[in-house]
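ok, trying the design again with the full structure, not the truncated one.
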């Protein structure tokens, strides 16, 4: 039998490029775990379970359970993205072998967890033309007066699903499904080239 070693690879191949004075770079080595409240609970039990989950996340990570369309973070170490009622993404800046199992020791039976780490292609776009580039292809108002570091949104760009957050005033983080990573990169890169 042949001696083979599997090596990790990323869909955007460690991209890091400067277009004009704006940087477009792939974000790799993140854990992403979907957190969902059980839907089978009675309304009063849901409120109690949510409060317990909030307490556990604040204790473990210093993150407050957010409402839909908002995020909480402690810098680039952890972010909690409120994506829809009763569902969040916990994004962690480290790669562990089984992130959902690790998180289960924190949240216990307050939520269902799914490892999403290998499901998303992630780009950072940072610099003075980042917002203009995204405004060309994004139907959502991402002006910093309404979309700051406390916001997150699910939308589409060039018919591709995308999640957008804004960790810093001139830096956006974009998540798009892995299956369309190259099309997603092409759309963002061309829009940035046209905006510079």
């Amino acid at each position: 039998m042949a001696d083979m070693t599997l090596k990790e690879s990323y869909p955007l191949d460690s991209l890091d490029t400067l277009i004009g004075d704006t940087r477009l770079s792939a974000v790799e080595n993140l854990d992403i775990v979907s957190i969902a409240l059980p839907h089978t609970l009675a309304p009063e039990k849901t409120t109690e379970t949510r409060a317990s989950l909030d307490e556990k996340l604040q204790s473990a990570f210093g993150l407050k359970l957010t409402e839909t369309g908002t995020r909480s973070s402690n810098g680039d170490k952890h972010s909690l993205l409120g994506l829809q009622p009763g569902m969040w993404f916990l994004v962690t800046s480290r790669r562990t072998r089984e992130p959902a199992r690790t998180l289960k020791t924190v949240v216990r039976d307050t939520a269902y967890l799914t490892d999403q780490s290998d499901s998303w292609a992630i780009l950072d776009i940072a610099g003075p033309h980042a917002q203009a580039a995204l405004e060309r292809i994004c139907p959502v108002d991402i002006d910093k007066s309404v979309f700051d570091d406390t916001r997150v949104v699910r939308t589409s760009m060039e018919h591709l699903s995308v999640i957008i957050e804004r960790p810093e005033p001139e830096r956006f983080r974009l998540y798009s499904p892995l299956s369309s990573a190259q099309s997603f990169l092409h759309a963002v890169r061309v829009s940035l080239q046209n905006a510079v």
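Keeping the full-length input from now on. The mean pLDDT is 92.
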